[in-house]
Write a structure and sequence with these properties.
Helix content: 40-55%
Strand order of the largest sheet: 1-2
Structural class: mainly alpha
Low-confidence stretches: 1-25
Shape: globular
Radius of gyration: 14 Å
Number of helices: 4
Mean pLDDT: 75
Largest sheet: 2 strands, parallel
Number of domains: 1
Order of helices and strands: EEHHHH
Distance between the termini: 44 Å
């Protein structure tokens, strides 16, 4: 039996940033939606003021997910507000 478990990212109310909880057993978490994970990393980086890293992760989300859907979501996400001008021109 594999030591990996699968968990879906949960989005807390009022924020699009995912919370991934590590199980106490120390097993690895495999996230099914890689675009969503990258999108949420962009959200976290942006909230921390690390805009270049946020742009990097958002670009990665565009590459592995549906770019139009991600762009629309990002332009409505207050976590990514500092990047809205860049996102809108992309």
């Amino acid at each position: 039996m594999s030591s990996r478990i699968t968990k879906k990212a949960m989005v807390p109310a009022g924020s699009s940033c995912a919370r991934l909880n590590r199980p106490d057993s120390g097993r690895l978490i495999q996230v099914q939606d890689h675009a969503f994970l990258r999108y949420n990393l962009a959200c976290h980086e942006c909230r921390l003021g690390r805009l270049e890293q946020a742009k990097h992760w958002l670009q990665k989300a565009f590459e592995v997910g549906d770019p139009q859907r991600i762009k629309l979501m990002a332009l409505d996400d207050p976590d990514l507000k500092p990047l809205w001008r860049d996102i809108g021109s992309a």
